[in-house]
Amino acid sequence: MGDATNDPRVPEGTVVLTASGAGGPGGPTAGTLDVDPDRLTGRRLPRYAAWVCLAVTVAVGVLVRITGITIIGLADWVVALAASFIGYTAWTLVVEGRRHAVDRLATTAIYAAAAAALVPLFWILITLVVKGFSVLSWDFLTSTMRNVNPRAEGGGVAHAIVGTLEQVAIAAVISVPVGILTAVYLVEYGRGRLAKAISFFVDVMTGIPSIVAGMFIYTFWILTLGFPTSGLAAGLALSILMVPVVIRATEEILKIVPNELREGALALGVPKYKVILRIVLPTAISGIITGVMLAVARVTGETAPLLLTTFLAQDMNGNPFSGNQASLPVFIWDQIQRGTTASLDRAWGGALVLIIIVMIFYAGARVLAAIYAPKKV
Amino acid sequence: MSAPVREPSRADSPPAITGASVRPGDRNFRFLTTWSGILVLVILATIAAFLVWKSIPSLTTDSVNPLTYQAWAPDADPPAWGMSVLIFGTLWTSVIAMVIAVPIGIGAALFIAFYAPPRLATGLGFFVDLLAAVPSIIFGLWGLYNFMPQVVPFSEWLATYLGWIPIFSNEKELYTKSIMIAGMVLAIMILPTVSAISREVFLQVPKGHIEAALALGATRWEMVRMAVFPFSRPGMISAAMLGLGRALGETIAVALILSAVFEINWQITEPGGNSVAPNIALKWGEAGANGRSALIATGLILFFITLIVNMTARWMVNRRKDFSGAN
User: Fold this and answer.
1) Quick check: is B136 in a domain?
2) Sign of the Cα pseudo-torsion (A227, A220, B87, B248, in order)
3) What is the pLDDT of residue A323?
């Protein structure tokens, strides 16, 4: 991945490209050099051009704000940016010609897209920290909503944290063995139409809407088999969502285990299943753990399937096999519905706790991957 | 990277020279893995079967046409409910999400693959993927209380100056909880999907094509247009479709942001609209037996729509994989 990104890149943008004599509208060919070396390249914008445009953007934006001709709130800046976009492109068009103007326009648009893709993430994370941090306290983390008026102040998320962790653990206990075994089948054994079908439908399964997974467990586990709603049912619904992610991640890793390892072991007469269990899986273990952790992080925040499989409990219930059980996403959902200031505060606090748990899984994936990474010989 | 290791499979069949029988451990392990693979197919088939089975009661007792009727009263006597409003809302919010997310997602992927310095590219890819880890309930909470207030002025502006375009017109003069805001939040949620898959595809473009284009004097954009896009078009389309699949099935964020009104609403700046998955989440608790069956019927339709979208997308990606090996 790293290699492929390296190569096509030209260090200083188009400037270097033309400096090597490759392009430009008036690109000189050998023998027709009738200008001094400084004009070897086509006419270029000065290097500070981009900064000038940025400065103009900021100036226009500030001006719009100050003079109060506010058009569309925050989007004023977007307008200012667009104005300098057009200015920049027009400037290039005049100085460098049409092809370079188009290139400039595309480059700016692509930079803007990359920036736009990052804005929401940081906006969300900062909001969560700002709004959630004031709510967070030892009390909030260790108390439940038992005997707390859900519209009044007080209470905490302890029961929801326990519920989330247990439900996710149940999902992992079910989907990790199934996922790894299926991936082993696909990579080590699977040939022909069955393997192709499984591989294809695993991909399709990753796209199942989470609410459908919850609905399936409701119709199958609760309606047909007659089990009550519980943390277990929630965990089952999560496992439906988790299995395909684990399979895909494990499969990708098993594919890159060097074939020489398998051949060497097989040549020594080791049975194939032992080759897989003793050679292939241990070699791939770091990648598998990373994949599992990412899958866990993925399902930790699922709300929709839980709404259909367990009802929200306001009290601590450590036993996922009986009775309703709270979970962080459903807790947040419930608190938003209450709509009071105190409950919204709790929702933000719960959201911060949830994202911290998800991030711990993410970070854990990286740390464990580093610990179990195959030692370089 | 593209050619998976598949060789040792030939050792599957026992060597004929020794005449050794298959070891029991081998046989059992193979049996175990195969059946675990088959289990995946069984689960998928069971999902479809159970949803069909459990939605039949409400479908047969419905006093109106469940596909076209525009109201929701499955627990009334006689039951009268239809899902046209829901399906319309699901498709309409998803279309808006696609219009926003596909260009930005592909742009970000291009930046990471061809424009950013390598070190920045890795970090950036990580951050975009991180967006996928944000739970949808948090998108809903943030969308409702932080994002919406920032978008409302923009909605007003659209309605005021572009109101002559029918979809932007707004007679209610209310701008919150609209289909557009729901679509925008959906766009943010599917951005990582679109971006990550397009990035994968872009990185598969043969280096030779890229270098040849640059060496012939193409600008970077011309290189992208002439070497990258033709090669990765099917991949980009399927990235968009996988994003669409996610947008169609998204529940909680839309349930929080969109004000649930049971009518077909083209006006994207007005509050109100509905969608299949959020409707299930909102109505589930209060629904009776027939109500739940009707909700399951809508879920079944959603399941099939996403199944078709995802299957088409995967089929396109896989087809690409087959002949990209030739390069």
Assistant:
1) yes
2) positive
3) 83
Residue A318 Cα, gap to closest chain B Cα (Å): 24
Would you place residue B112 in the very low, low, confident or very high pLDDT band (cuts 50, 70, 90)? very high
Q: How far apart are CA A72 and CA A58, in angstroms?
A: 16
CA–CA separation, A42 vs A99, rounded Å? 12
Size of interface A-B (CB pairs under 8 A): 349
- Residue ranges in chain A whose pLDDT is less than 50: 1-35
Could you tell me the two tokens for B126? Answer: 């990580």
The residue length of chain B stands at 327
Assess if residue B40 is contained within a domain: no
- Please judge whether B40 and A121 are an interchain contact, meaning their C-beta atoms are less than 8 angstroms apart: no
The average confidence (pLDDT) of chain B is 86
Q: Which chain A residues are Cβ-neighbours of B87 within 8 angstroms?
A: none
Is residue B250 within 8 A of residue B258, CB to CB? The reply is: no
Using CB atoms, which residue from B23, B218, B310 is nearest to A204?
A: B310
pLDDT for B173 beyond 90 = no
Overall average pLDDT of the B102-116 stretch: 94
CA distance A189 to A46: 61
Task: Write down the pTM of the prediction.
Answer: 0.84
pLDDT of residue B101: 95
Is the distance from CB of B281 to CB of B255 less than 8 angstroms?
A: yes
Q: Are the CB atoms for A37 and A18 separated by under 8 Å?
A: no
pLDDT at residue B150, as a whole number: 85
**Number of structural domains, chain B?**
1
B230 shares contact with chain A (CB less than 8 Å) = no
Cβ distance of B144 and A110 shorter than 8 Å: no
Total domain count for chain A? 3
- The nearest alpha carbon in chain A to B123 belongs to A118
For B181-200, what is each residue's pLDDT tens digit? 999 999 999 999 899 889 98
Q: Is B253 on the interface with A (CB under 8 A)?
A: no
Q: What is the pLDDT of residue B131?
A: 86
Structural domain that includes position B201: 80-324
Specify whether A240 is located in the same domain as A366. Answer: yes
Instruction: Report the residue from A71, A304, A359 with minimal CB separation from B251.
Output: A304
**A269 and A342 share a domain?**
yes
Q: What is the pLDDT at residue A17?
A: 38
Interface list for B 92-131 with A (CB within 8 A): 103-108, 110-118, 121-122, 124, 127-128, 130-131
